[in-house]
Amino acid sequence: MIAIKKVQASDLDTLINLSRKTFYDAFFHLNDPADVNAYASAAFSSERMLSEVSNPNSAFYFAVINNEAIGYIKLNYAPAQTEFKDDKAVEVERIYVLAGNQGQQIGRQLLDFAIQQAINAKLEYIWLGVWDKNNHAIRFYQRAGFEVIGSHNFMLGNDRQVDLLMKKTLLNT
User: Given a cut of 60, is residue 18 above it in pLDDT?
Assistant: First the structure.
């Protein structure tokens, strides 16, 4: 079982390093390295990450084992959401686990945590975007009760990709 710890501004270096490592592990071998590098240098810069951690409408949480962050999740509420900006929803913008810790249900524990946060906040649904070529992640979200409700473009460097938008309606409303 993991511990889930809210990320603070003082955790910024750990968050940046974990974000870069997990992103590169997940996508570097599947994309043009120049596009991955361009995206990562902007998305995981100190300035941008500090802004995201400091945003009162976003929250990052580490998955921790033996005092070591081995994964994380980012939740966006209302105005911080990338697409719908719905007061009745939360977006899972990022969910990543170190490659060496995958297969241990850590991603599922983080996702269950996010769903529980949404239920506790009396939200109607939880949603996310997932690369349409990431079949493993799509199946993971479908097993958790998410359904495809649309798509949008996502720029990875200069590469226009498609993210499927997936939604899970919560039963607490």
Answer: yes
Residue 79 has which token pair? 């105005």
Nearest C-alpha neighbor of 77 from the set 138, 121, 112, 137: 121
Residue corresponding to tokens 């906040």: 121
Angle 113-72-107 (CA atoms, 0-180°, nearest 5)? 55
For 83, the 3-state DSSP assignment is: coil
Residue 126 predicted with pLDDT over 60:
yes
Please name the amino acid found at residue 88. Answer: K
- What range does the domain containing 124 cover? 3-169
Q: Which of 61, 72, 125, 141 is catalytic?
A: 141
CA atoms lying within 13 Å on the CB side of residue 142 = 9
Q: What average pLDDT score do residues 138-158 get?
A: 97
CATH number of the domain to which 66 belongs: 3.40.630.30
CA distance 117 to 108: 14
Q: Crossing angle, helix 12-27 and helix 46-54, to 10 degrees?
A: 110
Q: What is the count of structural domains for the chain?
A: 1
Among this protein's residues, is 141 annotated catalytic?
yes
One-letter amino acid of 41:
S
> Could you read off the pLDDT of 69-124 as tens digits, one per residue?
999 999 999 999 999 999 999 999 999 999 999 999 999 999 999 999 999 999 99
